[in-house]
Amino acid sequence: AGLARAAGTGLVLDTPTWRAGQTWSAVMGLDPARVRQINLEAVAFAQKLRATQETDAMPILLNGVIGPSGDGYAIDRALSPDESLARHRLQAQTLADAGADLVTAVTMTQISLAIPTAVMTESREKIKSSAPIWAITPQNEFAFAVCPSCCPSTL
C-alpha cells in the first residue's frame, strides 16, 4: 500500500486463495463447506485490510485469486471445460459472493483450466455476481474477461 500511495495510484489487493480451491483442499482432507469458509474468510481479511488503507487518492480493488488445480507451470493432464468447471466453480462463486471486486484465475496452463468457457458465458447466472472474471496463463499467452456490461473477450 505504501508504494501505491507514494506513486499516487490505486492498488489491486489479492486474496491469499491461490491454493484454496477444491482440488488442493481435497488433498488436505477438507470438504467443500470448509473450502467455502476458507475463501469467505480470505475475502473478509482482505476487506478489513482495505478498510484500513483505502483513501480517495488510493482506491483498492479486491481481487479474488483462483489458482490452478494442478501444477501451474506444467501441463500434467488436459481437462475438459466441464471438469475445470467442476473444479473451480465453488471457489469462483464463493469469492464473488463474499464481495471480491474481480476474480482472477492465474497460472493456468491451458484455456480449459482457466475458468472455462461454460463459466465465462454463464457467469452472470451461475456465479451471480457483478465481479469481472479474468484468466491469465503463466506465460501471459492469453487473458480474457467477463464483465457485467460485456460478453467474454480476448485481450
Characterise this structure:
With 155 residues, the chain is of the alpha/beta class. Helix content is 40%, strand content 16%. The chain is built from 5 helices and 6 strands. It has helices at residues 2-7, 22-27, 32-53, 81-98, 117-126; strands at 11-14, 60-66, 102-105, 133-136, 143-146, 153-154. A 6-stranded mixed beta sheet has the order 1-2-3-4-5-6. Helix 4 (81-98) links the parallel strand 2 and strand 3 (102-105). Helix 3 packs across helix 4 (81-98).
Largest sheet, in brief, is:
6 strands, mixed
What is the helix content? 40-55%
As laid out across the biggest beta sheet, the strand order is 1-2-3-4-5-6
Spatial gap, N to C terminus: 28 Å
Low-confidence stretches: 120-129, 136-155
Assign the structural class, choosing from mainly alpha, mainly beta, alpha/beta, alpha+beta, or little secondary structure.
alpha/beta
Total E-strand runs: 6
Output the number of helix runs: 5
Q: Strand content of the residues, in percent?
A: 15-25%
Radius of gyration: 15 Å
Sequence-ordered SSE layout with sheet pairings:
Layout: H1 2-7, E1 11-14, H2 22-27, H3 32-53, E2 60-66, H4 81-98, E3 102-105, H5 117-126, E4 133-136, E5 143-146, E6 153-154
Parallel strand pairs: 1-2, 2-3, 3-4
Antiparallel strand pairs: 4-5, 5-6
Helix pairs in contact: 3-4, 4-5
Short recap of the structure:
This protein is an alpha/beta fold and 155 residues long. 40% of the residues lie in helices and 16% in strands. α4 links the parallel β2 and β3 (102-105).
